[in-house]
């Protein structure tokens, strides 16, 4: 690779790297949001399960 071709390819490589980093950051933010939503849903289901366990216990132990 000559010095001229290296200097003309550098801006393209930098742009490509910046786009890749932006994409990775976006994916990371989406994953973080999905994790938060799943944690919230998990907490809701655990609460619901606990309430059902209490109702079932009352049936067997009035």
Main traits of this protein?
single chain, 94% helix, 62 residues, mainly alpha
Describe what this molecule looks like in 3D.
The chain is an all-alpha fold and 62 residues long. Helix content is 94%, strand content 0%. It contains 1 helix and no strands. The chain has one helix at residues 3-60. The model has no long low-confidence stretch (mean pLDDT 85).
| Main sheet summary | none
What is the 3D form?
rod-shaped
Q: Helicity range of the residues?
A: over 70%
Order of helices and strands: H
Structural class: mainly alpha
Number of distinct beta strands: 0
Count of DSSP H/I helices: 1
Mean pLDDT: 85
Distance between the termini: 84 Å
pLDDT < 50 stretches: none
Rg from Cα:
27 Å
Estimated share of beta-strand residues: under 5%
Task: Write a compact overview of the structure shown.
By secondary structure, the chain is mostly helical.
Please render the helix and strand layout as text.
Layout (H helix, E strand, L loop, with lengths): L2 H58 L2
């Amino acid at each position: 690779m000559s010095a001229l071709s290296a200097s003309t390819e550098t801006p393209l490589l930098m742009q490509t790297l910046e786009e890749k980093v932006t994409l990775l950051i976006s994916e990371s933010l989406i994953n973080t949001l999905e994790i938060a939503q799943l944690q919230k849903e998990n907490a809701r289901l655990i609460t619901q399960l606990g309430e059902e366990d209490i109702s079932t216990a009352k049936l067997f132990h009035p």
